[in-house]
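Researcher: Here's a chain I'd like modeled. Treat it as a single chain, no partners, no ligands.
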Amino acid sequence: MNINKESIGSFIKQCERVLKISRKPDNSEYKTVAKVTGIGVIAIGVVGFIITIVSQLLFYS
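Model: Modeled as a single isolated chain. Structure tokens:
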């Protein structure tokens, strides 16, 4: 990987562009994202729990 002055400058310009167009989410948007994230975490936990139960029933009985 070749790191030079131009690549660092380009990266900094890209970061500045992203920071200029980003904004703080409002309250309703934040709550929606929190709900969706929570549902996703719960779904992954349920899938993991089911896989664990099935593997224990198949291999340890």
